[in-house]
Design goal:
Blueprint: E1 3-10, H1 16-29, E2 35-42, E3 48-51, E4 72-74, E5 78-81, E6 84-86, E7 90-93, H2 104-112, H3 121-128, H4 130-139, E8 148-151, H5 160-171, E9 175-179, E10 189-191, H6 194-205, E11 210-215, E12 219-228, E13 232-234, E14 238-242, H7 249-253, E15 259-262, H8 269-285, E16 290-299, E17 305-311, H9 321-328, H10 333-352
Parallel strand pairs: 1-2, 1-7
Antiparallel strand pairs: 2-3, 4-5, 5-6, 8-11, 9-10, 9-11, 12-13, 12-14, 12-16, 14-15, 16-17
Length: 359
């Protein structure tokens, strides 16, 4: 019997379009003899809609927002559309960024009683918040890119010049300014002057109430795929060689020539093994489940490995690193998806053993 798999995509985030492309790629690679796939698209205003399955491969999925397609949730049963109840053996929340990768959607799925692929509520939140994740990694003696976190209330108009001066004094120039909880380089700026820093801070604060400021690291940018729940498995790292000023949103998802992707990265075996070991440790200490991509810098002058960030729902487009690194490591795309479904079922079965009432 086929498993009922619900693929949720789109969403309210700056990565909406990326999700449409990731979902199309995942749908194209799912083993249709194993899964009965239902597509649910979340429009950019947050409304949910049932979608028709495409008859042929698509580079990107569209979302039909017709009122009769509106989807609701029936806890412990499935998803509703009109009088129809759609059962869910496994849900794949393939929404990048806010309202998808930050624990909010995972909390809704937990409340509904649905098995789902990927990190749980806590792991999703910790992985998404760059300040929180870096703090945890540092406490576990993992070297991270140095940073300063600034809350919006700390950046009051009469304090901005002072804060900017302190950031430049602490980290030097150039700097990267990032929303603490956003992905795919949304809202990120590289700044080379105090004037650019002020603009970059305001841009980042338009996406989040907390901003991360980091020095620009001169070195190689490498990434590592990790899957698993209690037991983890990492794959040979890949290297990103951006042709843009940095590996921004356009380079990742729009410009096919935005970056050279070297998979596997040309690294000594000892360094490769060290990267994979750190990636698995970083994954475990954040209590991640299912899958994630862990991103590093290898500092040019020192050779030091600096952990940058983790992506708990990395891109699955045709030019995304995660699945390609897994494939090079012996787990091709379709089998990777099968494994992620197995991990979701394993995680759900383990959590189902817990007690939630006092007797």
């Amino acid at each position: 019997m086929k498993k009922e798999l619900i693929l949720i995509f789109g969403g309210r985030s700056g990565e909406h379009e990326v999700s449409l492309r990731s979902a199309a790629s995942v749908y194209n690679h799912l083993h249709k003899e194993k899964y009965s796939v239902t597509l649910i698209g979340i429009a950019d205003d947050g409304k949910w809609f049932l979608q028709d399955n495409p008859e042929e491969s698509q580079d990107s999925l569209a979302i039909d927002t017709s009122e009769e397609r509106t989807v609701g949730i029936v806890p412990m049963k499935g998803f509703s559309c009109g009088n129809r109840i759609i059962r869910a053996d496994v849900v794949f929340p393939l929404i990048h960024g806010t309202f998808g990768e930050d624990g909010t959607l995972q909390g809704l799925l937990e409340m509904g009683g649905f098995p789902y692929i990927g990190a749980t509520v806590g792991g999703s939140y910790m992985g998404m918040d760059k300040d929180v994740s870096k703090s945890i990694w540092t406490s576990h003696e993992i070297d991270v890119v140095p940073y300063t976190a600034i809350r919006k209330w700390q950046y009051a108009e009469d304090k901005q010049n002072e804060v900017n001066s302190n950031l430049i004094e602490t980290h030097g120039l150039p700097l990267f300014v990032k929303p603490s909880m956003a992905g795919s380089s949304v809202g990120v700026s590289k700044v080379d002057s105090a004037e650019q820093l002020a603009d970059g801070m305001m841009k980042a604060f338009s996406f989040d109430t907390k901003v991360i400021v980091e020095p620009a690291i001169s070195g190689r940018e490498v990434e590592c795929s990790v899957i698993g729940n209690i037991e983890t498995e990492s794959f040979p790292p890949g290297e990103v060689a951006p042709t843009h000023d940095f590996y921004d949103y356009e380079a990742k998802y729009i410009d096919p020539d935005g970056a050279g992707l070297i998979i596997p990265a040309e690294l000594p075996d000892q360094l490769t093994n060290e990267l994979r070991s750190i990636a698995e440790k970083a994954y475990k200490v954040l209590e991640l489940k299912g899958f994630a991509r862990v991103d590093f810098f290898i500092e040019e002058n020192t050779g030091r490995i600096l952990l940058n960030e983790v992506n708990t729902i990395p891109g699955f487009t045709n030019i995304s690193m995660f699945s390609m690194m897994c494939a090079v490591g012996g787990l091709p795309y379709t089998k990777l998806l099968d494994r992620l479904v197995e991990l979701a079922e394993e995680q759900f079965a383990e959590r189902a053993k817990l007690k939630y009432s006092y007797e």
